[in-house]
Amino acid sequence: MSAHGGELAGERAPEVAARLRLHGQPVAGAGDRRLDAEPARETVFEIRDVAVHYGSSQALGWTTLDIHRHEVTAVIGPSGCGKSTFLRSLNRMNDTIPNFRLEGEVLYRGHDLYAPATNRVEVRRRIGMVFQKPNPFPKSIYDNVAWAPRNLGMRAGLDERVERALRHAALWDEVKDRLKQSALGLSGGQQQRLCIARAIAIEPDVLLLDEPASALDPIATASIEELMHTLKHRYTLVIVTHNMQQAARVADRTAFFALDLSGSQRVGTLIEYAPTRTLFTNPSDPRTRDYITGQFG
Ligand SMILES: Nc1ncnc2c1ncn2[C@@H]1O[C@H](COP(=O)(O)OP(=O)(O)OP(=O)(O)O)[C@@H](O)[C@H]1O
Ligand SMILES: [Mg+2]
After folding, report:
1. Whole-angstrom Cα distance, residue 75 to residue 73?
2. What domains are there in the chain, each with its CATH number?
3. pLDDT, tens digit (0-9, with 9 covering 90-100), for 134-178
4. 46, 74, 138, 162: most buried, per Cβ within 10 A?
């Protein structure tokens, strides 16, 4: 329990939470709006009975799981099972999609991410995202990394901040002599590491990565995987991947989603969530076993 009791945005005692739960409706009432005004917890996200709809179709079934600090959590499963939807729910990236509706609760360090008092800019600052296709801005390498700090008014020590982000993204040595050159001149793998540097330049708490290596060759993929092993000591990482070997190599825990075809709709459903080794060597659900042995999906 937080030392701040129930005064933080979205934080409530369980019984109050149960009473206030309004499916899909934000819950009113909050005091302090800062997301960092609380001591670190080992559990970064508590996802409770979350379901996502786009209009009349349900993309994600009722999902409950915890995401742990300084771990890599992988999300795997066949195409269309809601992996990206799930990931985007963790930093409110779905909010801009018309007809998006989320039920249930996503608690980030005890704060209800979807409470009206939760500041979305603050959410994005603390929970960064890297996409499948490297998407550097058509600016210099330096300006890409400096972009978010400048926008947030973090101008003091900007050169050091840019260097630190590039070092932590394992790119510094390759670009230190051409910081003023266009980012578009970098290779795909370098561009993806630049996007990681851009995301970590404002020192977020969590990095969400949606298939960050699927557009890269095996060498660039290996460098992204290696990077994840180091980044997790500093951040909490959640990665969507189609590559099961990659999940096995980088993730501490793995969530397997699949499409539940039993009803009238095809709904993405969490089938199994376990330490990665367990999930790949001793899965408890036959659907997981079929998927990881290639007989499914
Ligand atoms: N912006 C959107 N508007 C409407 N429906 C969407 C939207 N994005 C995703 N969906 C639907 O939600 C379901 C889950 O999609 P999602 O992209 O989350 O799956 P995924 O597991 O990431 O798939 P992939 O492996 O192909 O990336 C799909 O049926 C998809 O058509
Ligand atoms: Mg996806």
Report:
1. 7
2. 14-292 (3.40.50.300)
3. 999 999 999 999 999 999 999 999 999 999 999 999 999 999 999
4. 74
